[in-house]
Write a structure and sequence with these properties.
Elements (H helix, E strand, L loop, with lengths): L1 H25 L4 E8 L6 H20 L7 E8 L4 H13 L5 E3 L4 H14 L2 E4 L14 E3 L4 H15 L4 E7 L2 H16 L3 E8 L7 H10 L3 E5 L2 H14 L4 E4 L6 H6 L7 E5 L8 H14 L5 H20 L3 H10 L3 E3 L2 E3 L11 E8 L2 E9 L1
Parallel strand pairs: 1-2, 1-3, 3-4, 4-5, 6-7, 6-8, 8-9, 9-10
Antiparallel strand pairs: 10-13, 11-12, 13-14
Helix pairs in contact: 2-11, 3-4, 5-6, 7-8, 11-12
Length: 379
């Protein structure tokens, strides 16, 4: 009889152990950790600050309304302002120490590309609100972005310059960086297809401040227009030096819609035409207007496309985690299946490469010290 009770006891203990294991396996996390990797210091800190603030605004709203299935989101911020190695270090730390399953960022193309192999190996999502390089498209299955790519923006821009402005002879001055090379390569292709010619392509080191040598070479060729590809600090200094040297050409650039350009260029930015992902809080879209109002109330400044994209990224992750759970593989599945998400940055769904399936691109011009819309183009 005693042996029977011992056997029953063993069976009961085993059953309880199995139940405990299943319960522990199914247990929801106490908090949902999401990493954020953005340049919070350095020459493009203004972009990183917009990413950070868009994230914080979204997370505060979600947590005040019960979190995700009753679980709060915790944000872990990391700075990539020192360059791609800082991005890699941040991603490694977030994965190995903080055990995140998803990261907003890296925000820079170079940082995202350098970090992608790590995320792929560990099955962790990298969701960038701002990277543009075409190479991101083939960086891996766990890499997503809700920003138009270089090809999408540069194709629209180069066609606009060739077809509508009728320019034929152009020069290119760009940073020695992946995103800048991608932009220049697309422009050269379109210019050649439209019967134009690129007279020369000059490069400068990232963070440089003196561009007179390259500009002197460009001036000697007398181009009708100059493509300048860099970040706001670089562009501001280039524009001032173009004015000093006396180059008479129409000026074009990649995205520079940051107030920082006015402080650095000191008037030399007037007339600059540039391309960017479309974002306008005054379009009458309630979602965008509401976000812009909340952003202004919280941070005391107008919203920016990177802030809107980061805000949307958090809400997209909330939607996916709610339905698919907090695991990299399942989040990836949910992101690929996402359909027609209506966000502050527009309607969002991803193609098979993790890029936006549909984008709106805007051509803008600086007139009277203000960013003005020239053209909105749907792709």
């Amino acid at each position: 009889m005693k042996k029977i009770w011992i056997k029953i006891g063993i069976v009961v203990i085993a059953a309880l152990a199995i139940v405990l294991i299943i319960t522990q396996t199914r247990k929801e996390p106490e908090e949902i950790k999401i990493g954020v990797v953005a340049p919070l210091t350095g020459p493009i800190a203004v972009y990183g600050e917009n990413v950070r603030d868009g994230v914080l605004l979204a997370v505060d709203e979600i947590n005040k309304n019960g979190g995700v299935n009753g679980t709060s989101i915790k944000i872990i911020l990391e700075d990539e302002g020192a360059g791609p190695q800082a991005s890699v270090n941040a991603v490694r730390k977030l994965i190995s120490i903080d055990h995140v399953q998803t990261i907003i960022g890296p925000a820079t193309s170079a940082g995202l590309l350098a970090s992608a192999p790590i995320a792929e190996k560990e099955h962790v999502i990298l969701f960038s609100p701002s990277s543009t390089s075409d190479n991101v498209r083939d960086a891996g299955d766990y890499i997503f972005r809700n920003r138009a790519s270089t090809s999408q923006e540069a194709t629209v821009f180069a066609k606009y310059i060739m077809e509508e402005l009728g320019l034929k002879k152009l020069s290119i001055l760009r940073a020695n960086a992946d995103y800048a090379k991608s932009f220049a390569d697309v422009c050269k292709k379109i210019i050649a297809e439209k019967g134009g010619v690129v007279l020369n392509e000059e490069m400068f080191a990232e963070g440089a401040s003196d561009y007179r040598s390259q500009l002197t070479k460009i001036k000697a060729l007398n181009p009708e227009g100059i493509f300048i590809v860099g970040v706001p600090v670089e562009l501001g200094n280039i524009l001032r030096q173009i004015k000093e040297i006396g180059i008479k050409a129409q000026l074009f650039s990649n995205t520079i819609d940051s107030p920082e350009i006015f402080k650095i260029a000191k008037g030399a930015e007037e007339g600059l035409t540039f391309v960017t992902t479309f974002y306008d809080p005054k379009t009458g879209d309630e979602k965008i207007e509401e976000f812009d109002k909340k952003f202004m109330e919280r941070f005391g400044r107008a919203s920016h496309i990177f802030g809107a994209n980061a805000y949307d990224a958090i809400y997209i992750l909330k939607t996916v985690i709610k339905d698919y759970g907090y695991k990299g593989e399942k989040i990836k599945e949910g992101l690929y299946k996402l359909k027609d998400f209506k966000g502050a940055g527009g309607n969002i769904e991803f193609d098979e490469k993790g890029d936006l399936r549909f984008t709106k691109v805007a051509v803008k011009k600086i007139v009277g010290g203000k960013f003005t819309f020239v053209r909105e183009i749907q792709r």
